[in-house]
Design goal:
Helix content: over 70%
Mean pLDDT: 80
Oligomer: single chain
Shape: globular
Order of helices and strands: HHHHHHHHHHHHHHHHH
Number of strands: 0
């Protein structure tokens, strides 16, 4: 009787695991394909057939791997694949929500974004954090728009806090994509020409110029997070640098939008002076970039490490 119960329990376990794997993959595929059918970004609309085919193919391969690993009793590989399937399912649901609600189209300007967040009621804070995360890794909108909308909704202090949470997490994810998935994936996300342009500009000066660009407004710092992942910048330096620069830039932006108006002569004059100061500072930094970059790397001991590595390679 006990053996029968144990056998039945094992059978139910196998049925549950296989069913869960298959159903979650089917659900993920359904949500992804359904989301792709909506009229959203121009890139999706142009490449819809290709993206649907890729989505179905990738989901099918993941499902097949999960089933094979389970049948062959490769426990570690199966658990890893199952975690991937769960993450894929959750991402597919979020993707469907973004596409079906017209979320992407509604975040192209401050007023529509603010209206959309207000409509979510008690979820407004979490939706805003999600928007700030997505504008780093996916949405083609500048952080200026989202911060302005957040300042109008929550005030400068809370907007700074919520924006920092979403943007910091998004920055780390973008850096990880560049570091772990490499050039091809990043060029597919941000565009090859744009990526090559920034890689060329930052070659040999990534520590200095990237740090300055993250601190100052007017630069595509979200795109630069991907670029940073492809540079020589280390994880510890990136995390510390992005924590400090994002906190400063977001807070200054939120309080600036709150205190400096756009509809008065003195407000426009202040903004013009700020922009001029930013440009002047960046020009100075570019002019003395070699000296400053060398100073930073010496302080971090990077030049010493590189020299030792080169000496070691020469000996070999």
């Amino acid at each position: 009787m006990y053996m029968l119960k144990e056998s039945t329990r094992d059978t139910l376990k196998h049925v549950f695991n296989v069913t869960a794997t298959v159903l979650m993959c089917i659900a993920a595929g359904f949500f992804i394909v359904s989301g792709l059918l909506f009229d959203t970004l121009e890139f999706i609309n142009t490449n819809r057939t290709l993206l649907i085919s890729l989505a179905i193919g990738i989901v099918f391969i993941i499902m097949l791997c999960g089933l094979i690993f389970y049948i062959l009793d490769l426990s570690t590989l199966y658990k890893t694949t199952f975690c991937l399937i769960v993450c894929l399912f959750l991402i597919s649901v979020v993707f469907y929500f973004i596409c079906s609600t017209g979320f992407i189209k509604r975040v192209t300007d401050m007023d529509s974004l603010r209206e959309m967040i207000e409509e979510t009621g008690a979820w407004a804070v979490w939706v805003f954090i999600l928007v700030q995360f997505l504008q780093v890794v996916a949405l083609p909108i500048p952080s200026t728009i989202t911060v302005m909308a957040g300042t109008a909704l929550f005030g400068p202090l809370l907007c700074s806090l919520y924006s920092f949470i979403g943007i910091f997490i998004g920055s780390v994810v973008a850096f990880a994509i560049g570091r772990w998935l490499g050039y091809r994936v990043v060029s597919w996300i941000v565009g090859k020409e744009e990526l090559d342009k920034w890689l060329k500009k930052l070659k040999g000066k990534d520590y200095l110029l990237l740090s300055i660009m993250f601190l100052l407004p007017l630069f595509p710092d979200d795109l630069l997070c991907f670029v940073a992942g492809l540079s020589t910048m280390t994880w510890p330096y990136f995390l510390i640098m992005i924590f400090i620069t994002r906190a400063i830039s977001i807070t200054l932006s939120a309080y600036s939008f709150e205190t400096i108006p756009f509809n008065t002569w003195w407000g426009l004059l202040c903004w013009a002076l700020i922009i001029a100061a930013v440009i002047a500072l960046f020009v100075v930094v570019c002019k003395y970039s070699d000296q400053i970059d060398k100073f930073i790397k010496n302080k971090l001991g990077l030049n010493v490490k590189r020299k030792k590595k080169n000496d070691k390679n020469k000996k070999l």
